[in-house]
Design a protein that fits this description.
27% helix, alpha+beta, globular, 252 residues
């Protein structure tokens, strides 16, 4: 009798375990189905700046958004809304978001800028079947960018980056007024304000060295992937302030 009861309980336990497994599989499937995603591209860079340690930079690009972060799915990131032309920079430490609205670049450089492009021979291999060029971008005879660019690589990412750089340049121009003229640097003015997309005009920048030692190199890229829409949304409950608030001493 005891043996029969033991077999009965074993059968019941086996049936229960099968039901639990089935429920877990079903819940996982339903969760995956309800998780919204959008197609886009992911680009990973290795980046260093002067004496700072090497870090990862990730770019997620969709039709409507550009997200730049350190490769983590957290609440510290930069998000550019390509439709509204607004830049958001979030900070999880103080739960705040800096908001920068694109504004037209209406002013001219306060100092004369002479810009040139110098082509340098390279034996760099192709990337994704795209030829790589080596260029020096100069302003006032100073090398501002040492650039390796792949023609035709990731055109959708190049377009998004150009839009973001143009949106940012108007705000960068507003900072010029607060700087003494003798402190203005030709490369800074060209790179960040008056020719802010010139390093993107020759293809995708697979390797980029800036004047002040900032170095960025392509590590990997994926196209046509599903990107979680949650990564393209701002954190809830964060207070917002603008770049103008900061200039007026109200962003602290």
């Amino acid at each position: 009798m005891i043996s029969q009861n033991s077999n009965f309980f074993k059968k019941q336990l086996k049936t229960s375990m099968s039901l639990i497994v089935l429920i877990l599989v079903t819940l996982t499937f339903l969760s995956a189905c309800t998780k919204k995603s959008v197609q886009g591209a992911e680009v990973m860079f290795s980046e260093t700046e002067q004496e700072a340690p090497e870090q990862v930079t990730r770019m997620l690009v969709t039709k409507n958004y550009l997200r730049i972060d350190e490769g983590k799915d957290n609440n510290d990131f930069l998000l550019y809304d390509r439709v509204k032309r607004v830049i958001y920079s979030t900070n999880s430490t103080d739960k705040r978001t800096l908001v920068v609205h694109a504004q037209p670049l209406t002013r001219k450089s306060p100092i004369k800028l002479g810009n040139k492009v110098k082509t340098i021979h390279t034996d760099a291999p192709t990337i994704g079947g795209n030829k790589v060029k080596h260029l020096n971008l100069l302003t006032n005879n100073e090398i501002c960018y040492d650039l390796f660019a792949a023609e035709g690589l990731l055109p959708q990412v190049v377009t998004a980056l150009k839009e973001y750089r143009v949106a940012l340049s108007g705000e960068q121009a507003a900072i010029i007024d607060a700087m003494p003229k003798d402190m203005l640097q030709p490369c800074d003015l060209a790179n960040n304000v008056f020719m802010s997309t010139r390093h993107l005009d020759h293809g995708f920048p697979v390797r980029l060295q800036e004047t002040k030692g900032r170095f960025r190199e392509l590590v990997s890229y994926r196209q046509g992937i599903n990107i979680d829409e949650a990564l393209l949304k701002l954190p809830e409950g964060y207070s917002e302030f603008t770049a103008e608030d900061m200039r007026n001493g109200q962003g602290g």
